[in-house]
Write a structure and sequence with these properties.
Layout lengths: L2 H12 L2 H10 L14 H6 L6 H17 L1 H13 L3 H13 L4 H21 L3 H12 L6 H11 L4 H23 L4 H12 L2 H8 L12 H12 L8
Helix pairs in contact: 4-10, 4-11, 5-6, 5-9, 5-10, 7-8, 7-9, 10-11
Length: about 240
């Protein structure tokens, strides 16, 4: 066996390609526009609700829980539909998710980030499913919500659903914590402590919601929704939500 072949076998053993893809599309540098949104944190900071590491941790946990019981459920259904080659299932998850979103900025965030992710995926990966989804997003037939886009993308990449769920939860928490560094008096160490603690809760949370149907999705978190509505009519515009 040639030396080059030996090296290739070794790399495949040490580094599963799906893990590399997971890291790439979970990275905050992935160009989907997450940096432009704060999930209501800007209003929470302006109203004095979030003002230090403790209150920030409470807020991020609330946003992450809301996302797990709503967005992540749609992502899991989209992932399963994509694995089963059921495009209709993908579209069902996309519509169901957007129907339970209460505020305009939240819907706008999901649609812009979702479109960016599918555009990126269609550029990098040859996939009829991604191409069909992108075509329907551009024509207005599909909303192209970000969680559903994640489900489809990760299924195409061969990433399993528990890992996709972890990536989704990481992305939500990291988006809010990244915004916090710009509008709350906290340090990078503070945000990393919060992220470390929240990520330790992901396996149990996945076990709790993995069997939810689309009809069981719920986004009930009044304080976050009220803050989102305040932001829509407010003057502060460091972030788009």
């Amino acid at each position: 066996m040639e030396e080059q072949d030996k090296k290739a076998i070794l790399m495949n053993t040490l580094c599963d390609t799906s893990v590399m893809r997971l890291l790439q599309f979970t990275d905050s540098a992935c160009p989907v526009g997450a940096f432009a949104f704060s999930c209501g944190l800007e209003s929470a900071a302006a109203c004095g609700i979030v003002h230090d590491a403790v209150t920030l941790g409470e807020y991020v946990r609330a946003v992450a829980m809301q996302s797990a019981f709503c967005d992540a459920v749609a992502a899991l259904h989209a992932h399963r539909a994509a694995v089963a080659d059921s495009y209709g299932g993908v579209m069902d998850a996309d519509r169901a998710l957007m129907m339970v979103k209460l505020n305009d900025e939240g819907r706008l965030m999901l649609m812009r980030m979702g479109r960016k992710l599918i555009e990126l995926g269609s550029t990098l990966i040859k996939s009829p499913l991604l191409n069909a989804f992108l075509s329907d997003i551009r024509s207005g037939e599909a909303f192209g919500s970000y969680p559903v886009a994640q489900g489809v993308m990760f299924a195409v990449l061969g990433i399993k659903e528990p890992e996709m769920f972890a990536s989704h939860q990481y992305g939500v928490a990291n988006m809010v914590l990244g915004a916090a560094l710009r509008c709350v008096k906290v340090s990078h160490v503070d945000t990393q402590k919060i992220l470390f603690e929240l990520m330790g809760e992901v396996p149990e949370l996945y076990g709790e919601i993995k069997d939810f149907t689309l009809d069981e999705m719920n986004s009930f978190c009044p304080e976050v929704d009220i803050l989102a509505s305040i932001h829509e009519k407010g003057r502060q515009r460091m972030f788009m939500s």
